[in-house]
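Lab notebook, bench 4. We co-purified these components, and the gel suggests they stay together. Before we commit to crystallization screens, I want a quick structural picture of the whole thing.
Request: model the full complex, all chains together.
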Amino acid sequence: MTRLLELKGVNSFYGNIQALYDVNLHIDQGEIITLIGANGAGKSTTLMTVCGVVQATSGRVVYNGDDITRESPNRIVAQGICQVPEGRLIFPELTVQENLDMGAFMRSDKGAIKRDIEYCYDLFPILAERRRQEGGTLSGGEQQMLAIARAIMAKPRLLLLDEPSMGLAPLVVRQIFEIVKKVNEEHNTTIFLVEQNANLALKIGHRGYVMENGRVVLTDSCEKLLADESVKRAYLGL
Amino acid sequence: MDYFLELFLGGLTRGSIYALIALGYTMVYGIIELINFAHGEIYMIGAFTGLIVAGLLTMYGFPGVSILAIAVVCAVIWAAAYGYTIEKVAYKPLRGAQRLSPLISAIGMSIFLQNYVMLAQTSDFLPFPELIPHFGFMESMGSIMSSSELVIVLATISVCVALTLFIKFTKLGKAMRATAQNRKMAMLVGINVDMVISATFVIGSSLAAVGGVLIASHIGQINYYIGFIAGIKAFTAAVLGGIGSIPGAMLGALVLGLTEAFATGYVSSDYEDVFAFMLLVLILIFRPSGIMGKEKAQKV
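Here is the predicted assembly.
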């Protein structure tokens, strides 16, 4: 297996507050990795550090063999990393179609973009119905679907998902997780999933990391984490 | 009726100039939520560039219309260079700072540019040549609208249409809208946000420069201070229309221009500003987000 992403001893600050302490983790090509932890544990900062929106103050982020620690976000996206951020961040005054176009911002293969938009509409038929509607008028679940579809439009090698289940009905969450799995299987897209809903995340992931107060405290295969007593107590409510 | 029409067309001309400047205010605000107080000075620098270029070309005996065209192009390029540099020097280093800091920096930049032009040129009014030609077919309409007014209005309409199409359909235009709506997400889809911000300053400055040359030619004189009052008026127009909104700035400028023209014509020219700012106060009371502005929830 090729190592796709590796964080080595990463320290990051969120404003003046140190959010990550010596974080080490790695993802291999084709894996689904889950990162679980409580509110404020540093999960989102980890993703933002990978994308270059937050810059690591020390340590290294290595992607596909290249050091991308100091790269700007647009160069990182160009290399195939795409994030569906927390809160979805739909462009509210762009139509559904335009939001999808923005996902393909770095691409210039017009024919393939058209095909991929149709593919997204097949995955999420509700978006096809709403294609002329402004993104801000969609419901929470639809916005999450749009955010994921927009990320698919970038044809990422590595897809970062930040709390896709947040604020959504259980049925919608299940649907979204199924599609995440499908994208992973059909396109061999590597997935880095950050979740508070540890139960769900550990069920679709291959390996998992547990984060507390900015530090990775535990890592193992997802089956073992699901069976782990401390994880059960802290994150699964058992 | 003729008098009404004359006032109306005069208001349209004023509104056009305000629109050309207001667009720069509103675009910059839309993208980085900054009131670029130095924007009026860009307009003034555009006018001065036009004057210098026109002077040189007249000396070398260029024909009339080509002088106008070349002067506008040179003013646009030079003003765009100023706009680009101002952003890099005065605003970009403060991007992470509190909101007040770039605002103060903008005021400082405005004062600096005024004084720089005053020292480099002069504090007196300089005559500006009439670059806009007189059209024969406008003779019969002479009492209600001059050739230069017609050119200003038509130029503004074409610029507004071009800008609207640009924002709606081009890749950079879409990137600008996306950046204005959510800068973080714009970064995450791979938009080079720094480039988009620079482009916004360049486009806004170019529009102001077009306005600067046209109005200077229409009025016939300029000095280092013209950017201040024009800037305040254009800013008012942008707020009136809903700051951050491009069609809002166009509409706000039109409303402001017409209000001033009618106030001047039917009341007294002393009351021009009174009516302009009274309109602003009324709008701010009854529709604080401006005519076309959207009510936005305060971000926490």
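The interface with chain B takes residues 51, 53, 72-74, 77-78, 82-83, 85, 89-94, 98, 101-103, 105-106, 150, 154 of chain A (CB under 8 Å). Worth comparing against the SEC data before the next meeting. Chain A has ten helices and ten strands.
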